[in-house]
Amino acid sequence: MSKRNSLLGLQPQQMRHLLFAAGALLRLLLLAYGEWQDSHMAVKFTDIDYKVYTDAAERILKGGSPYERHTYRYSPLVAYFCLPNLLGCPFFGKLLFCCVDMAVALLIEQVLWMIYMERQQQKQQQLQDKPLTGRQCESIGGGENNSSSGNMSSTSSKCSSEEYPLHTFLLPSFCWLFHPVVATVSARGNADSIPCLLVLLTVAAVRARKLILSAVLYGLAVHLKVYPVIYGVPILLSMQRGALGLSQQQQEQQLLYLLRLGSPAMAATTTLNALLANYNASAGRYGFPFVFESYLYHATRSDHRHNMSPYFYLLYLDSVAPVKGLSVALLLPQLLCALLLGCFFAASNLEAGLFLETVAFVALNKVCTTQYFLWWLCLLPFAVGATDMKKNTLLQTGLAMAVFQVACLFWLFFGYKLEFEGKPVFLELSLTSAAFASSQMGLVVFFSHKIRSQNKTRRAEDGVSVPSEAAALERKRV
Predict the structure, then answer these.
(1) Would you say residue 72 lies in a domain?
(2) Residue 339 lies in a domain
(3) If you count DSSP H runs as helices and E runs as strands, how many of each does the chain have, helices first?
(4) What is the pLDDT of residues 150-183, one digit of tens each?
């Protein structure tokens, strides 16, 4: 094992197991602390949504509809997940959501490994069995920012059979497992980690070229939470452009041209069928309340409380003197910005494109609460992995995330003043909301620049550097 792949004197696999075990322990401690705080403090640790889930599950046990519970605006599946809460295990839902958290981290690691292997295969194809220079050998052996463990390609194994790409488990650990927002949201009893898991399963299925499975998973993700609908166009464009780790020569050899044209249509059809199946099952049982609360409500939702949105103060004024169509009009800049980002970046890096799209979507959403950040935090490791991951870049990434966290703390400070102390801090809170949205859009600008720079570098390496070195070798032979 090389020195570069040792960390704190531990082998990579040992460090990986230690980090994941620490992540699980952190969540167990938060669950225990939450029970204590709920019993001893006026401000409860448990999210109000958890009580809503449990109350809805109680309605189901009594033979009713979960939508009989006021403010239940989720898929009926969430209420079914929380049925054990009423069967002698009141913390079951929280434990389930924390387990999903851990599964998300493992899935992030798996997809990072898939990206790494695709990159290795592309390099191997581009070299076309030419003798490797020392610099190429070092690059393929693990010196780049994409990572893996397990079955190395034959070319990379010639360079270093014992390399273990550290970022495949370090990124999900520090971007997800130990992120305070992620751990706290699930331990408090919020279910937003479940759609995150389904989105990542969809991405993994797309990467594995399992078309039908990816479409079914995507349909289920949209059924459970509406927001993944924004991923549809970028995913289809990614399929159509063949941006799934195959070189142009591989596509021609495997006659993938027609498949590239047909895959998006087939995926869209399968997704629609999956959505309709879920819709018919739920609507047939619970009727129009399911349709309105799960889907239609979110298009017209206008919330001036518990809202981190830059439109917070505007919606507050609108609640006093309503402006017709304001809530719907605010969707247009949000959707336009999100879709442009997703479509632009998805062809070269699907996961990073989805990350940028989601950050913009959340930052410009007319309603924004803490759990929404999970939607893009689960994609953050891919955005970091799409940069050059040099020391300066990682430091800049940490600084950008620190600015986001500080802005969040400022908002929480003024939000507490308003919600719990009843102080008239609307102006301060509106300014803080604008600054908070700016910090998120700053992440979009930062990662857009870094990812584009790295894409240019890779294209130069793939299209210029490798062929030029191969040509130089040919000239020497002649």
Answers:
(1) yes
(2) no
(3) 24, 0
(4) 333 343 333 333 456 777 888 999 999 999 999 9
